[in-house]
């Protein structure tokens, strides 16, 4: 007789035989979890183990799991009109674009794609074509930061500043340059955070000058580096970057793939700073990852350069699935949930409480720094607090494994830059209840107390 358990066991075996997983090498001792169901902030695997998903999937499931209204929105839309190419239009795409502009508080033209990588690729294509049609045809280069992630495709990966994500896949798309990010924890001793951030921002200007400003199309950056290690700039940094962009005719592309939709305690991460991005990219939290959808929002004055009436001046970009009607309907409903439940404010509140609750970890022998904005936290582990030597892989893996053994999934900036994969990350659903929040705090405190 086949028991339920053995059938489930064979699922893991079949997985091993047939599925190639992202990032991880196959580990016999620790096969992948087979996620079976989710409710609120919690997931259950195929063996019935429950975990609080402290990473909201991949920093994405902002409203939590099991939202019937999202399933219903997709269902209804699929029955009514399952597909429409975005060479034409449909109501959910129109309403969503209008809603996003309301949230951005400005006038952008919205282009739909499927993933964060796609959204950034579209941004690069638009920036290059814009300059061509705006009397600046030699502007084609983009500058981004080391440690930042912008996607997996050949252009978005070229913009990524994480050598381990690129190693053995190069050469990637040409024309992508990098500068160092502000890493306040590792700033030179004796330098103020503000002074250090100004200096880091000025590296963009240096690069622009060294490279000849007429060749620089844009700067792409997240409001804060998320997956690359939760590196939060001083406001002066971004404001200085904006000033540099304006001075040199360089477009500012803000990657809100993680920071958008409440993660940092506001609708968009850049709204913490005095910024006026030319292009904004979004994905993940846009649908809370219930369906794939991404957006490239482009300022009207850029868009206007694509309507010159000249031959080939229009955007010659297309993809099949971008702006799928069901995905747009889910995004609209997802945003409605966030607004009804005040999840942006909740993110700010929970984030503040989390930092307070865990502030004492600064005294832990292996915690170098702890930092966050909204419901997003990074705990930087070190071997030695004095030298700031990054913690070994083993030490980071032990903390993550112990959290999991206690029912909490946490993340890390894995396979980013060799030697600097030492930041434990928390990015839970913004819909966490007070009980969920207490659970997270209890597990983190316990695990760190046991790992001294
Ligand atoms: N930009 C950022 C900041 C991201 O974190 C990611 C994904 N982690 C991407 C872009 C790429 O998104 P996707 O995986 O949907 O292609």
Which features would summarize this protein structure in a list?
Aspartate Aminotransferase, domain 2; seven-stranded mixed sheet; Aspartate Aminotransferase, domain 1; alpha/beta; 14 helices; binds 4'-deoxy-4'-aminopyridoxal-5'-phosphate; five-stranded antiparallel sheet; 452 residues
Account of the 3D structure:
This protein is α/β, with parallel strands linked by helices and 452 residues long. The protein has 2 domains: 168 residues, Aspartate Aminotransferase, domain 1 (Alpha-Beta Complex); 273 residues, Aspartate Aminotransferase, domain 2 (3-Layer(aba) Sandwich). It is 38% helix and 16% strand. The chain contains 14 helices and 16 strands. A 7-stranded mixed beta sheet has the order 4-10-9-8-7-5-6, sandwiched between helices. Strands 11, 12, 13, 15 and 16 form a 5-stranded antiparallel beta sheet that branches. Helix 4 packs parallel to helix 11, helix 8 packs parallel to helix 9 and helix 12 runs parallel beside helix 14. The longest helix has 19 residues. It is globular and about 65 Å long. The model has no long low-confidence stretch (mean pLDDT 96).
Outline the fold blueprint:
Layout: H1 4-18, E1 35-39, E2 42-45, E3 50-53, H2 56-59, H3 68-80, H4 91-104, E4 108-113, H5 116-133, E5 141-145, H6 154-159, H7 163-166, E6 176-179, H8 193-211, E7 216-221, H9 235-248, E8 251-255, E9 279-282, E10 294-299, H10 300-303, H11 325-340, H12 343-358, E11 367-372, E12 377-384, E13 389-390, H13 393-405, E14 408-409, E15 411-412, E16 423-426, H14 434-450
Parallel strand pairs: 3-14, 5-6, 5-7, 7-8, 8-9
Antiparallel strand pairs: 1-2, 2-3, 4-10, 9-10, 11-12, 12-13, 12-16, 15-16
Helix pairs in contact: 3-11, 4-11, 8-9, 12-14
The structure holds 4'-deoxy-4'-aminopyridoxal-5'-phosphate.
4'-deoxy-4'-aminopyridoxal-5'-phosphate binds at residues 58, 115-117, 120, 149-152, 222, 226-227, 255, 257-258, 283.
